[in-house]
Design brief:
Length: about 750
Amino acid sequence: MKINCLGGGPAGLYFAILMKKAYPAAEIRVIERNRADDTFGFGVVFSDATLENFAEADQETYDRITGSFAHWDDIHIHFKGEVLRSTGHGFSGMSRKLMLNILQERARALDIDLRFETEIDNPEDWRDCDLVFAADGVNSLIRDAYADRFEPNVDFRPNRFVWLGTDYPFEAFTFHFIENEHGLWRTHCYRYMEGMSTLILECTNDTFDKTGLEVTDEAATAAYTARLLEPFIDGAEVITNRSHWRNFPIISCGNWSFENVVLIGDAVHTAHFSIGSGTKLAMEDAISLADAIKETGEIPAALQTYEETRKPEVESLQRAALTSLTWFEETERYYDRLEPVQFGFSLLTRSLRISHENLKLRDPDYVASIDSWFAEQAANQSGVNVPTRPAPPPMFTPFKLRDMTLRNRVVVSPMCQYSAEDGTINDWHLVHLGSRALGGAGLVMTEMTDISREGRISPGCAGMYKPEHVAAWRRVVDFVHGHSEAKIGLQLAHAGRKASTKLGWEGYDVPLDEGNWPVMAPSSIPYMEINQVPREMTRVDMDQVRDDFVRAAEMGEEAGFDMLEIHFAHGYLLSTFISPLTNRRTDAYGGPLENRMRFPLECFDAVREAWPAHKPISVRISATDWKEGGTTGADAVRIAAMLKAQGCDIVDVSAGQVVADQEPLYGRLFQTPFSDRVRLEAGIPTMTVGAISSYEDVNSILAAGRADLCVLARAHLYDPYWTRHAAFAQGHAMPWPDPYATIDDYTPRV
């Protein structure tokens, strides 16, 4: 076997070592343009949790590397004169140069051919082998030379950052947030060897421009940094090493290999330094590829296996890294609006991968202080006495909207059941909603309930437009109020151009085979080609819809609901007025956002006037259309601010489903960042939805201030008693209904 490793950094060297161990007769060359002792940067960092597979891959290298580690457990956050401390995190750092020396020595001992100061002018010159392994970094020559094969995408982010060193020995992984005349600065600092630390300085482009610094003026950068950090580093030296100001590139590739060429590490993907080391990620790539070769015994199959197994892992990590990166890009939002204790928790959980429960295992005292603070805030907000020593988990604190007080922060999401007849609900809905109220949720929302027969999504959708609907809904409301502590809310909507389609399990958004009714929308644009072309609404149509919303709200009050929610999301009628992709009107209801919001706000105002003043109203919005030219997160803030000004009490922040060709970014808690932004920038309470599945998620979201309520759908379909089971798992007592009193003596076994 003959292998050419193009790039002599840690990943290239490590892969060469692993392959030489597995195939001692292999001819392996490592080609590097720089000198053997030349490297960019200062230290690399690893978390304890990521090192186990390194030991399995090559014990000798693992022993040498870990024997050179500087280890620490603590994180210190310097924020507005306070130092917030958390422990139990388990990090290790080491000199990047020392790591290269260790890997070079190990490679030479295995008789690997190391060629430094060798330029790769033409990649084709190196393809006369079984495998070309390209680990040539962010500015990969190989990736660029074969761009048509790898299909790279490079997105340079807006913030500026610079890598520096210092002889100040940071005792913990340290973040500083420092505001000066130019703006807000963030640092990421860690000790990587005795007496030496890495220091990353980061700011917005606007802040950088105000400094007058040149991108490549290292002396001026070092002097500026020393002045900025003088109160924290006690006159220590700030050291440069090609310390140029950069914009972080998010790199991804459609393909990771072709023929006998494969990319790894920063050449094929990047993950922001705020979640760990790119070196660690690249070395894990090397392990994965080496394992694939040993498993399959041939290069083509190995490359396919490597990409199929490793790529999903990396993409998941990249999503978390993007969330973390975005937090640092938008730190000004948190710096100005969160109290120190919550700011620190928001920082520690920024990637959405570290949870309230995970932090509790690492540092129980820290999380206890978070919970006590949160309980105190909840007591002040709701007027309900909440113990603070010990405090309940955040999800089991009260929350008040007007005169409605929820016993906890868990919400059963509106979920269409497609089981009504001409809008009239039945026993299915009683059991469906009643069981989830008994299951302990603080608020139970009805499914999308339509304000007219023509406004239904399907023939099986629930309605509030006939007198008999009131009695049917009152039966459910009375059960919830009579047998649980839950509150119940009614979601009102008109399906618009998504109306007249099949039941959900027969085909979402697919038109009926027969019996279709006419549909309408702000503009005559069908949802998909297979759907009806809606008629463009007239002012008469708008008056009718507005009046239907009012009538439905009045019927909701007659049925005894505690709260209303109006549906402004997911491509239904009012949503299509808001999105520029679906509203092409040229009158007063089209054009700029203020005009597109005009009719939805008319409906809201009319409902708010008809609905009792002491009862709250929520509005569900799509914070983004997930499509170029559609609504964005910034628009969502403006929409929420308009709603707040009109008396909306809380915004239910969802996303997408407005246009069929949307391009969503799915993942754990993928919609929560929109709620976070709307809550803080518009200054209105929010509910968050989207892939929330565990009580860890709920507690993390709430404690970090990303939402005030958490809305769960599929988790409640799977387990109607989800909230009670979450309470049991956390040792939190919830009273059972009297008929279930004997359960107090029951201990579940799993």
